[in-house]
């Protein structure tokens, strides 16, 4: 029961993340931004993850996972509420503040829920539990993009083309009107958040703390190490550091691809309505969901790291096609990339957390992995810079292609490590 309650929360951060993809397209036109400036939406969003993950882990240590999750939901609710004044003030900076506040809440939620889901049951099934829970995230992504399509893009047509035909005064007034539409999806999300908050608040949740056994055979909660001791342990764990770097590259790649897919479609077909371009993101999230299901099936039959190695190499090839072929095939290749994103995030998360054998370091280790989400703030900005410097949004997709190559190398190296350890274990028998 408790695990299912936690699973309800996973789609909620997917909805907020996918709405950013709509906002980037809207803000670029209304505020007349270049590609680098539009990436600030993701910088504000994922930058909050980097700043808040460690404080969230400290709260988990001092209080409980449930308290941290409720704190995250509270910030999420406040952030959504800030879209009310943001839509009235209608400045880019005010919207960024609201997005940052939402992301503060999501940082608490991901730091808590990812680790908590992996702990609610037998250790040997931790990876499967987290992958199951993360399979629900694309449903939230689809919800967010559908809300954006029908509420924010409800004006119809191509916003950039429409405003280009207006006088400066008319375009400014029309842009302000379009910004009012950004409030609508967040009203809907607010209702869901309040319901989930109340369900969690009245549900008894296990503490899921690390325990050891004393000399009399009694379970005793382990003493929490200091931050200095924790950092010394984690920084000395080579495989843990590799996992954090892989997560940084993965989230950066995923965010970059999704941030610019709608824009790429509009650039390749300059007469395409914004709402039609949004359909490519709906299909992308559906492909991501199917990719997770297929990978989960394969990972139950074959080596997890081997399956993800193949996924990553095929995803890299899809991105090479995306930046190399100058027609609509590039869009379909970008959609295929979403299929190969599959379960990379939860697999890297659970796999990296599993390298932490001393479980008293688990909360902080989980926070460090969540901090790697800051890749979502860095890589879209780099892709935006490449796009502005080369004057080719399509060529800038070389940035996520390089990221996927790094993720592929990570899974390949982990597969080789596991094969080596299995051989050593067999020889010792």
Please tell me about this protein's structure:
The protein has 429 residues and is mainly alpha-helical. The protein has a single domain, classed as Growth Hormone, Chain: A (Up-down Bundle). The protein is built from 21 helices and two strands. The longest helix is centred in the middle third of the chain and has 31 residues. The protein is globular, with a radius of gyration of 22 Å. About 1% of the residues have low confidence. InterPro entries: Lfuc_symporter_FucP, MFS, MFS_dom, MFS_trans_sf, MFS_TsgA-like. It is a multi-pass membrane protein.
Task: Count helical runs.
Answer: 21
Strands of the widest sheet, in order across it, are 1-2
Q: Quick one: CATH superfamily?
A: MFS general substrate transporter like domains
Instruction: Specify the CATH class.
Output: Mainly Alpha
Indicate the radius of gyration in whole angstroms. Answer: 22 Å
**Shape field:** globular
Reported CATH architecture = Up-down Bundle
InterPro entries: Lfuc_symporter_FucP (IPR005275), MFS (IPR011701), MFS_dom (IPR020846), MFS_trans_sf (IPR036259), MFS_TsgA-like (IPR050375)
Organism: Ligilactobacillus ceti DSM 22408
Membrane topology: Multi-pass membrane protein
Keywords: Cell membrane, Membrane, Transmembrane, Transmembrane helix, Transport
């Amino acid at each position: 029961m408790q695990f299912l309650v936690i699973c309800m929360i996973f789609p909620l951060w997917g909805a907020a993340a996918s709405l950013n993809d709509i906002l980037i397209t809207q803000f670029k036109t209304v505020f007349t931004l270049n590609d680098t400036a539009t990436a600030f939406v993701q910088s504000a969003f994922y930058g909050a993850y980097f700043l808040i993950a460690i404080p969230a882990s400290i709260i988990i240590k001092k209080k409980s996972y449930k308290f941290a999750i409720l704190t995250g939901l509270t910030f999420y609710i406040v952030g959504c509420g800030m879209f009310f004044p943001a839509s009235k003030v209608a400045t880019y900076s005010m919207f960024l503040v609201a997005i940052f506040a939402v992301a503060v809440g999501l940082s608490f939620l991901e730091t808590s829920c990812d680790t908590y889901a992996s702990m609610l049951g037998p250790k040997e099934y931790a990876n499967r539990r987290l992958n199951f829970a993360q399979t629900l995230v694309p449903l939230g992504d689809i919800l967010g993009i559908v809300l954006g399509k029908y509420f924010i893009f409800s004006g119809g047509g191509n916003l950039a083309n429409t405003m280009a035909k207006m006088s400066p005064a008319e375009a400014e007034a029309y842009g302000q009107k379009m910004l009012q539409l950004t409030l609508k999806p967040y009203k809907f999300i607010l209702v869901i958040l309040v319901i989930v908050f109340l369900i969690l608040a009245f549900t008894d949740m296990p503490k899921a703390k690390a325990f050891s056994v004393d000399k009399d055979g009694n379970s005793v909660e382990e003493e929490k190490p200091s931050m200095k001791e924790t950092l010394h342990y984690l920084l000395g764990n080579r495989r843990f550091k590799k996992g954090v770097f892989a997560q940084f590259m993965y989230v950066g790649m995923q965010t970059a691809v999704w941030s610019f897919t709608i824009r790429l479609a509009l650039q390749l077909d300059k007469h395409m309505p914004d709402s039609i371009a949004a359909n490519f993101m709906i299909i992308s999230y559906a492909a991501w969901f199917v990719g997770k299901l297929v990978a989960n099936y394969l990972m139950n039959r074959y080596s997890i790291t081997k399956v993800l190695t193949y996924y990553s190499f095929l995803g890299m090839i899809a991105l090479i096609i995306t930046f190399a072929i100058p027609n609509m095939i590039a869009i379909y290749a970008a959609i295929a990339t979403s299929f190969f994103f599959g379960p990379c995030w939860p697999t890297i998360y659970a796999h990296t957390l599993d390298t932490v054998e001393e479980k008293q370091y688990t909360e902080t280790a989980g926070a460090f992995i969540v901090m790697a989400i800051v890749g979502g703030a860095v890589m879209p900005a780099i892709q935006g810079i490449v796009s502005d410097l080369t004057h080719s949004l399509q060529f800038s997709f070389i940035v996520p292609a390089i990221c996927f190559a790094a993720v592929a190398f990570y899974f390949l190296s982990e597969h080789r490590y596991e094969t080596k350890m299995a051989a050593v274990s067999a020889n010792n028998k």
